Amino acid sequence: MPPPPLPSFRRINTRTWPPTRESEDGLPAYYDDEADNTWPPTILVLEGQSIYSESSDTAPLFQLNRGLINPRRATTEVELERVKYGVRRSKPETPTMKKPRLRHVYNLKYMNRAPGGLDSLPSGSPHYHIQSTSRQTLGHIGLKRSRIRSSYSALSLDMSGRGDYGIPRFVKHARPCFQTQRKGDHQEWVDSEGKAIAIQEERDDQHKLLVTAELSSDSMITLVALWCCRVWEDSVDNVDKVGGGLDGGKSICLY
After folding, report:
1. Cα–Cα–Cα angle for 94, 62, 145, nearest 5°?
2. Which end of the chain is more exposed for a tag (fewer CB within 10 A), N or C?
3. Which pLDDT tens digits describe the chain residue by residue (255 residues)?
4. C-beta atoms surrounding 81 within 10 Å
């Protein structure tokens, strides 16, 4: 009997179904979506602290430890976790979903000033960056906004902390792993080759990422983290415009 269908963002690896061995923790071996290294096109929706696939009624794919919309004044770090699912067989003919697991993949970071709060950030350091906590990502990456303020480049970071208060700096001459550019009422994301891979939309307080290309797992996780940073930055900008800034009435200079 074939296994039951899983949500559209995962595909069964038929070579490992049905499981035939015990897992390392003593539980029956189960299907793990790490066996698939690509994610098909999908629409992701950010709702509160959860990120869902719009085409699926299942539990979230990613989880944040706090909301990105209207952040608190002192918020400088947000954790991003990937929600992992699996399938196991309690009986040969009845595959069941295993309890989801959370895997911490990134810390989203925001810095407006150098440590101490007296000096502005060096020009070679990002105000928003993502710090990897997993090997299943593209690493530590910062967002660099262009001078025309309508496009961004996602660049690798030097996290060694040498000089400039020990804060991250963009790697010199690094090639962007992703870039964005505003087109009408949305942002388009492209990969390192300039191929369009996603569209970022904000309508009626809804935040969506329309992934239009098949992506490797590490690229997808990194793209989601960077998208979250952009949502966070836009929210800070909006609060700044309405309320006079998050740092006691002073406007926030991002770049």
Report:
1. 155
2. N
3. 444 333 333 332 322 222 232 333 333 333 344 445 889 999 999 999 999 998 876 679 999 999 998 766 678 899 999 998 776 656 666 666 567 889 999 999 998 876 665 567 778 889 999 999 999 999 999 999 887 767 999 999 998 876 656 789 999 999 999 999 988 888 999 999 999 999 999 887 789 999 999 999 999 999 999 999 999 998 887 765 655 444 443 333 233
4. 19
Structure tokens at 148: 């025309």
Q: How far apart are CA 53 and CA 59, in angstroms?
A: 9
Q: Is the peptide bond before 18 cis (omega within 30 degrees of 0)?
A: yes
**177's tokens:** 């792993």
HSE, side-chain direction, 13 A CA sphere, residue 50: 10
Strands 169-170 and 141-145: unpaired
The conformation of residue 184, written as its DSSP 8-state character, comes to T
At residue 236, what is the residue type? V
- Is residue 52 classed as helix, strand or coil in its secondary structure? strand
Residue with tokens 């770049």, as numbered in its chain: 255
- Which residue matches tokens 């003593």? 26
C-alpha closest to that of 200 among 128, 252, 151? 151
Cα-to-chain-centroid distance, residue 243: 28
pTM, to two decimals: 0.77
CA distance 128 to 108: 7
H helix or E strand, kind and range, residue 145: strand 141-145
CA gap 246, 110 in Å, rounded:
12
3-state secondary structure of 18: coil
